[in-house]
């Protein structure tokens, strides 16, 4: 049975997250007790789950293997309130896995065994072009979250796609190393970028003193609107023709790190969909991310 038409589409990585966390600081080579979680993950999926937890109608577009791990993953995603009807299945590839090690100070190291998006190619975007959600003649007018795990050809295709010319595009890189691949989306009026400071500095092309400077620098490069987070330091929102807004997050005890940026993005989107202005939406996003890091919230 096909799910109802969603209001928001999240396009990108859908995989298993394997997260090991130590309750104490770790040194290189440390062998310590802790807890290991095996949960659905990926940037696009994490944002989708955070949106669903906040009452939004959302579907994810991506690719998983046609293996038991992929079937279990899609079942788990549906249980979290995210529609998977338009996911691609890849018989020739295993389902992707992301593995991370965290301690009380944050992320120690991570490895991504991810290949599905590249293997699927244009098939990932097909529902936005074939009339399922939109087409060149009848563009999608809803919100689309774009995950920086998409390949450069996929991102270039999105930038030039007439089926997305009316969409509200919300874009997030997967890591500082993948931030530059978002360059084709700079200069587009209907794109909002969600970056951490390192990612913003990559797009700006130089180091920045803080989130406000980094956000402003990305706007100078051509972005219409940019939100930049900087861990426990103030976050910023910059857009063409407007002042740069900044706000500091509340102090919290770190219980988890992975997914904080996704919660920030989802809470900001939900606040704006509810009519919040720039300052109120930034405040909602910062508080949601802080609650996530502390172990509270959805």
Automatic annotation (TrEMBL):
Keywords: Kinase, Transferase. Residues 7-297 form the Carbohydrate kinase PfkB domain. Gene3D superfamilies: 3.40.1190.20. It comes from the Bacteria. One of its GO terms (cellular component) is cytosol. GO terms for molecular function: kinase activity. It holds the Pfam family PfkB. This is Sugar or nucleoside kinase, ribokinase family. It comes from Paracoccus chinensis. The lineage of its organism: Bacteria, Pseudomonadati, Pseudomonadota, Alphaproteobacteria, Rhodobacterales.
